[in-house]
Design a protein that fits this description.
This protein is an alpha+beta fold and 208 residues long. The chain has helices at residues 2-6, 9-15, 32-42, 58-65, 83-90, 110-117, 136-164, 178-207; strands spanning 17-19, 26-28, 43-45, 52-54, 69-70, 77-78, 95-97, 104-106, 121-124, 129-132. Residues 147-157 have a biased composition (Polar residues).
Length: 208
């Protein structure tokens, strides 16, 4: 009884909907007759995309969304659905840049141009050789890797040699034995006497 007392027939009527036979939209049942008359008179379903479009705008909708497009570069007629793909990737007359010299030219001429351009050479400052442009990226990676590896290997070879190589041994002076000592004193004495005699003779010659 309490539930029946709270029931509002007017609210239930507002919540009820009906499907429009023309546009297939759910419309409040209270407005379905008015909507159906207006919809059939003013709206038209697009046969290409199914969108409901105002009858007076149907031609504009078709031209903007579905009409084939004439490419101004290659003069081909392109379906609207693939127009963006044609412009960016498929048109043979679209302008592209050479990956070696960045010169811009039609895509149809790119392959022949890059065959010639990629065979040009540039001087590698690292290995002091002339390298083809088409091989430049791979060469640069390999050349730098080899250079860094050689530098590390050279460093690893030279440092241990400095650490391992011992200093040259210092030989102690050989001791002078008795006989050698006597010969040394005799040599010194003879040398001293010879110097004295030479000095006396030189002084006599000067006095004369």
């Amino acid at each position: 009884m309490a539930a029946d007392a709270g029931f509002d027939p007017s609210a239930a009527a507002l919540a009820a909907t009906s499907t429009c036979a023309h546009c297939q939209r759910e419309i409040p049942s209270s407005n379905i007759d008015l909507h159906s008359a207006h919809c059939a008179r003013n709206l038209q379903k697009c046969e290409h995309c199914g969108e409901m479009v105002a009858r007076k705008l149907m031609d504009e909708h078709y031209n903007e969304s579905h009409a084939p497009v004439s490419c101004t570069l290659c003069k081909e007629i392109i379906a609207h659905e693939i127009w963006d793909l044609h412009k960016s990737e498929q048109c043979p007359q679209r302008i592209v840049a050479c990956e070696y010299c960045e010169f811009e030219l039609p895509a149809v001429e790119l392959h022949e141009h890059q065959d010639v351009c990629g065979n040009r050479t540039e001087f590698c400052q690292t290995c002091k050789k002339y390298i083809r442009l088409r091989e430049w990226i791979g060469h640069e990676l390999q050349c730098h890797a080899n250079t860094n590896g050689s530098a590390q290997s050279s460093s690893a070879r030279t440092i241990p040699e400095r650490e391992v190589r011992p200093p040259p041994p210092v030989r102690p002076p050989r001791p002078i034995h008795g006989a050698q000592h006597k010969r040394l004193l005799f040599t010194i004495a003879v040398t001293g006497i010879a110097v004295m005699i030479g000095s006396i003779l030189f002084q006599r010659e000067e006095s004369f």
